Amino acid sequence: MLGAIIGDIVGSVYEFHNFKTERPEEVDLFNAAARFTDDTVTTIAIADAVLNDRGYAVAANDWGNRYPWAGYGGGFARWLAAKEKKPYNSWGNGSAMRVSPIGWAFETLEETLVQAKRSAEFTHNHPEGVKGAQATAAAIFLARRGASKQEIKSCIEREFDYNLDRTTTEIRPDYRFNESCQRTVPEALVVFLESEDFLHAMKLAVSIGGDTDTLACIAGGIAEAFYKGVPPELAFFAEKRLDPPMKAVLSAFRDKYLKQ
User: Which residues contact 72 (CB under 8 A, 6 or more apart)?
Assistant: First the structure.
């Protein structure tokens, strides 16, 4: 889950100022202007829901309204403001960016998929919104259970019909800012599959452009599980940008699920 938060934070400065490069090693992951955005807020909300047996919608409403300035999409911002909370048929990548805790917390792939669907559909009840959340959570579950990259790729392609045969070099030239699951989750998976380690995954994510904080958030959640952690310097960089209540949830989640 920290990997997803790191991705959000390091990608935040590039979201509307893409830094496309064929030399990912040139990407600066330690920009002083980096901050958490809605990706982190909603990830913490889902973790809180899992930890404390809260409804996903209840936790998302609570945390979302604590940070009204975090940069939510229009649909989610209206959902937060509404008295009556209803799903709004979204296929946006918000369902995938917040789902990483689900990939860590459940013991079977079947239950992971069920919970990923539930974590999506209180807002993102469009089939593509659910699919993006489930594919992301499945990849994290498989990665933490020791699956190889080829096994993860084969499962995601078979179950979710995403094209993962592209490379970042092929994606980069024509890739633009896109908030859909359809044009964010497959790209994030390609980034993960092509990466050499967690740090490389973050640099690759930024290097292709697009909705960089969310792309890096999704890729980071998977990469953390596969590479068995994150570099200490990136963990420190990200955690010092979180508020104490966020750190408390992160710590409790790590103690319960990541140290088993």
Answer: 38, 64, 80, 94
| 170-174 contacts, C-beta under 8 A, 24 or more apart | 171/208, 172/20, 172/22, 172/207, 172/208, 172/209
- Gap between the Cα atoms of 170 and 176, Å rounded: 13
Number of domains in the chain: 1
Chain centre to alpha carbon of residue 159 = 19
For the chain, give the percent of residues with pLDDT over 70.
Answer: 99
Amino acid (1-letter code) at residue 228 = K
For the full predicted model, state whether its pTM sits above 0.85.
yes
Q: CA 48 to CA 42: how far, in whole Å? A: 10
Residue 246 has pLDDT above 60, yes or no: yes
Tokens 């889950």 correspond to: 1
Q: Name the packing angle between helices 198-207 and 2-11 (round to 10°).
A: 40
Q: Check residue 258 and give its pLDDT.
A: 82
In this structure, what DSSP letter does residue 161 have? -
Boundaries of domain holding 71: 2-258
180 φ, ψ (degrees, to nearest 5): -85, 155
Interatomic CA distance for residues 97 and 213, integer angstroms: 9
- The pLDDT-based confidence of 259 (bands split at 50, 70, 90) is low
Provide the greatest CA pair distance for the chain: 48
Which CATH number belongs to the domain containing residue 224 in this structure? 1.10.4080.10
Q: How far apart are CA 234 and CA 3, in angstroms?
A: 9
Provide Rg for the chain, Cα atoms.
16
CA dist 134 and 78 (Å) reads 24
Distance, in Å, from the CA atom of 118 to the CA atom of 95, rounded to the nearest integer, reads 10
